[in-house]
Design brief:
The protein is an alpha/beta fold. It is 53% helix and 12% strand. The chain contains 18 helices and eight strands. The strands form two sheets. Strands 3, 4, 5, 6, 7 and 8 form a six-stranded mixed β-sheet that branches. Strands 1-2 form a two-stranded antiparallel sheet. Helix 2 crosses helix 3. About 3% of the residues have low confidence.
């Protein structure tokens, strides 16, 4: 034994084998930490200080191969070409101060007290659930987004559709530059929330429903002439409801029309009927003296400006395009956010980038166990296995540990 290493010589095959116990312990420490065991728990279980555990985790994450490089080495062959893209903010205390081309300064007001951090932009293939390419940048800017699409082109990703939320900036234009024939689908859930934010009619709707319940509770007692209190209350409730309906009625109607488009219209015939009715209702609205007429007009024009992006799933039924980014939103909340929230951010940008890469690698090698619906067939397989790599590089998903494998492969990648 020499420096926590056991060296064994095999007289049959004439090969030397080295077992590094210190490295194995560090790998196990990272695995436990990625499984949501905090440094405090590791301190109690492993009898080491939190600082030592943190240093070991940072050392191992630095030795792991970059997930994007792993994709280039494995050459997966089973991607469907439907890509979901979303960004996730990661708090970092010390980030690079040098400005890059296309950098958009972060708003201090938007982030409140947390002004520094990184944005992780993840690309998930819809049918395999694999993260073939990701990017970490100071913001969701055009320069870094273009690099992500260039990376996708470099690995020969068969991009057909991009599904993203409306707040991802100029992602559609950038995707069109690199992949001219790509189809864009805006997340209907995010677009609906944008309508709610611009209309600012949600609280009024809830108040209206509350008043309706109070009126229904009175039943028909206010029709009885001797029930003066119920009659007075019914009149007061009715007047309040009428006032709310006069102010917000058109806004509520437009929101309900878009809700019908997002979740009930299934084919082009239904779309044509919906648009005819939508145009008719807008034309019949008396918006001349309506206080919120501009909100309705702006939303009407915005729909027809982004029409092809909003209804892409209806126009191309053969591609089975998802209407939401729920898959990647679920990954952000269950995988990224739960792990990062307990850490409460990183001290240095280097540590953040390495740890994000480790989280993505762990996800790509883990086995699905709770997929439902049309994704039930993915259970028992990892995202990488579903993607069917052309080169396995000696990895066995059942018997090989992913951390030593990724550390070993990194040494083979030319710098």
């Amino acid at each position: 034994m020499h420096r926590n290493k056991i060296r064994i010589f095999c007289y049959d095959c004439k090969k030397r084998i080295t077992i590094n116990h210190k490295e194995e312990k560090a790998n196990e420490l990272l695995k436990n930490h990625l499984n949501r065991n905090s440094y405090r728990i590791l301190e109690d279980e492993k009898c080491i200080s939190k600082k030592t555990a943190c240093n070991l985790v940072n050392t191992v994450t630095e030795d792991l191969i970059d997930s994007n490089d792993l994709t280039k080495l494995l050459c997966p062959q089973n991607y469907c070409g439907i890509l979901l893209i979303d960004g996730k903010y990661i708090p970092v205390k010390e980030v690079g101060t040098e400005k890059e081309p296309g950098f958009v300064p972060r708003s201090a007001k938007r982030r409140g007290k947390t002004k520094k951090g990184l944005v992780t932009v993840v690309c998930i293939d819809y049918l395999t659930h694999d993260i073939q390419i990701y990017g970490v940048s100071l913001s969701e800017n055009s320069f870094d987004m273009r690099n992500i699409f260039l990376e996708l082109k470099a690995i020969n990703y068969p991009l057909k559709v991009v599904v993203c939320d409306e707040t991802m900036g100029q992602i559609a234009e950038i995707a069109k530059e690199v992949f001219p024939d790509v189809i864009i689908q805006i997340c209907c859930t995010h677009y609906g929330k944008t309508i709610e934010r611009t209309f600012i009619a949600g609280n009024a709707k809830r108040t209206y429903c509350s008043l309706q319940k109070q009126l229904n509770f009175l039943d028909e007692s206010f029709f009885i002439s001797t029930h003066h209190f119920d009659r007075a209350k019914a009149m007061r409730l009715t007047n309040q409801m009428a006032d709310l309906e006069f102010q917000y009625g058109y806004l509520w109607e437009v929101q309900e029309l878009f809700h019908e488009l997002f979740w009930r219209v299934q084919d082009e015939k239904g779309l044509s009927e919906w648009e005819d009715y939508f145009n008719e209702r807008i034309a019949l609205m008396n918006l001349k003296n309506y206080p919120y007429a501009k909100r309705i007009k702006d939303r009407y024009l915005d729909y027809y400006e982004k029409r092809e992006w909003i209804i892409a799933s209806i126009l191309h039924p053969e591609l089975d395009i998802p209407r939401t980014t729920n898959l990647i939103e679920g990954w952000n909340s269950t995988t990224m956010e739960l792990r990062i929230s307990s850490i409460r951010g990183f001290k240095k940008e280097k540590y953040a980038r390495n740890y994000i890469n480790a989280i993505i690698l762990k996800y790509r090698f883990h086995t699905f166990r709770d997929c439902r619906g049309k994704f039930k067939i993915l259970n028992g397989k990892s995202p990488l296995k579903i993607a069917k790599p052309f080169n396995f590089l000696g990895f066995d998903s059942e018997n090989t540990d992913w951390i030593p494998f990724c550390r070993k492969i990194k040494k083979q990648v030319p710098k």
